[in-house]
Amino acid sequence: MSANGDHRDAVAEIEARRAALYALLGRLLALPPDPECLDKLQQLQGDDTPLGMALSDLALAANIEMNTLEDEYTKLFYGMGQGGEILPYASYYLTGSLHDHPLAELRRDMDRLGIACGNVNDEPEDHIAALLEMMHGLIVGNFGIGVTDLSEQTRFFEAHLATWAGDLFMDLEAAESAVFFVAVARLGRIFLEVEGSAFRMAA
Predict the structure, then answer these.
(1) How far apart are CA 105 and CA 192, in angstroms?
(2) What is the domain range of residue 170?
(3) CATH number of the domain enclosing 116
C-alpha cells in the first residue's frame, strides 16, 4: 500500500474513533444505559493516556446494578428543571434560563446543516446528549450535507459545545448523586479537551 493509502487509513481510523466516542457519550447521557449497553461498556479497554484511562474507569464503573443506575440517572437529570442536580442544556449554562438564545442559534445551524430533530429523550435540542449526537452525525455524514470537513466540525463544536460542555462535565463529575456518571463525566471532559486542542491545532 502507498504512503498516501496508509495516511488515508490512519485518518479514517481516527475519525471513526472520534465519531464512536461522541456517539457513546451521547447515548449514555440521553437515557440510562440498558443491560446490553452495560455489558458492552465492561468490555472497553483503555491505554495509559488520560483518555484511555478514562475509558478503563468507565468499564469498571459499568459493573453496577440497573436499579441503582436508573435511580442515579433520575436524581441527576430527571425532567427539565424538576429537581435534578444537573440541567444539561446549553441555554441554561450560558444564560441561566431554558429555551434561550443558544437554543435559537442552534436551531438555525441545524436548519443550515440539514439536521432534523430526532433526540431520543424528547428534550430540547441543546441538551448535551443531542449535541454530542449531532457531532457524531457531522463526522459520519448522517445529515443533509453529508460528511462535513474539519472546518465545519470546528465551527459547530466552538459554537455549541466548547463554551459550556466542559463546565457541565465538571459539575457532573462532582455531583452528589453521581457514581457511575463520575466516570462518564471524566470521559466527556477529557475527550472534549482533546477535541478542542485538536481543532485549535488544525486552525
Answers:
(1) 21
(2) 3-202
(3) 1.10.3480.10
Mean pLDDT, residues 17-41 taken together: 97
pTM confidence score: 0.92
Measured distance CA(163)–CA(151) in Å, rounded: 17
SS (H, E, C) the chain: CCHHHHHHHHHHHHHHHHHHHHHHHHHHHHCCCCHHHHHHHHCCCCCCCHHHHHHHHHHHHCCCCHHHHHHHHHHHHCCCCCCCCCCCEHHHHHHCCCCCHHHHHHHHHHHHHCCCCCCCCCCCCCEHHHHHHHHHHHHHCCCCCCCCCHHHHHHHHHHHCCCCHHHHHHHHHHCCCCCHHHHHHHHHHHHHHHHHHHHHHHC
